[in-house]
Amino acid sequence: MNIVQQHTIRNPIHCRGVGLHSGVKASIVLRPAAPDSGILFRRTDIVGGGAEIAASWRNAIESSLCTTLSNGEGLTIGTVEHLMAALAGAEIDNVVVELDGPEVPIMDGSAAPFVFLIECAGVAEQDAPRRAIRILETVTIGDGDKSACLMPDAGFSMSFEIDFASRAVSQQDLSIVFDSETFKTEISRARTFGFLHEVDQMRAAGLARGGSLDNAVVVSGDTILNEGGLRYADEFVRHKLLDSLGDLYLAGAPMIGHFRGLRSGHLLNRKLLEALFAAPDAWCYTTQSRGEAIDALIWRERHRASA
Ligand SMILES: [Zn+2]
């Protein structure tokens, strides 16, 4: 069996756009990085020290609207989740993300522009085995009618359920088994969404300044305001899976297990990782092999056949 190796990008690449909440324009540059160095954000607009923040749940601060990293000294990088999801989906382990502003650009509200960026840069295999987190015991975090859960599974899979009063969204439940193409085709194009009344409230609170129909699906009552409609019939739940994948990648490694979200969001996702790492018996590090991924697919097919 072939052990799965770590990956970085082949060449530096950049893009520019506006931040969803800050409204501030910023450029990001992705740079190749050494094996075992992980994903590191670097604020290039800050002179002197303290401008680097590792992409770790330990550096994520309390935030329900987006996932924000902080160095603990007031320096933050906002809305990292869609870029993190693209890096997770493309199986990039090591990369430096340079940013000359406070927030990762929202682009079109999905992870697709970042997937395109990574594909243009190229993916390079590195001479070091990829480390994964295998879930051994179920870990659950709940808050009222919301919950997030990690449980053992043969490969990596995710499911999510949302339930909104608006008939444009209503109840959506989706389960996805990940292989190398799943993220790009099934998840990456799903956009951020919001309700018009919330957008007005957020604007009043100085948030969503960069938000528009070009980078978010906006729902008013039972109507979708975007002229082009939806990219997937259940785009909303797919975006929740996208967000959760990005948040989970702050664990510092891909997972072998199943994630289940029920009306949850960034805050619960961070608490879930906190709970996981506080329970040493609930997980272990492991290497992955290509054969193991095939075994997982065969296991699922058998499971499905007998169900
Ligand atoms: Zn999102």
Notes on the structure:
The chain has helices spanning about 80-90, 110-120, 180-185, 195-205, 235-250, 265-275, 290-305, and strands at about 5-10, 15-20, 25-30, 40-45, 50-55, 60, 70, 75, 95-100, 125-130, 130-135, 140-145, 145-150, 155-165, 170-175, 195, 215-220, 225, 255-260, 285. It has about 300 residues and is α+β, with helices and mostly antiparallel strands. α1 (about 80-90) crosses α5 (about 235-250). The longest helix is centred in the last third of the chain and has 17 residues, at about 290-305. The chain is globular and about 50 Å long. The protein starts with a strand and ends with a helix. The model has no long low-confidence stretch (mean pLDDT about 90). Zinc ion (ZN) binds near residues 81, 192, 239 and 243.
Helix content: 25-40%
Structural class: alpha+beta
Distance between the termini: 29 Å
Q: Sketch the topology as an H/E string, one letter per element.
A: EEEEEEEEHEHEEEEEEHEHEEHEHEH
Main beta sheet strand tally, sense and closure:
7 strands, mixed
Bound molecules: zinc ion
Output the number of helix runs.
7
Approximately how much beta-strand content do the residues carry?
25-35%
Average pLDDT metric: 91
Using only C-alpha atoms, the radius of gyration works out to 19 Å
| Global outline | globular
The counted number of beta strands is: 20
Q: Which consecutive residue ranges, at least 5 long each, have pLDDT under 50? A: none
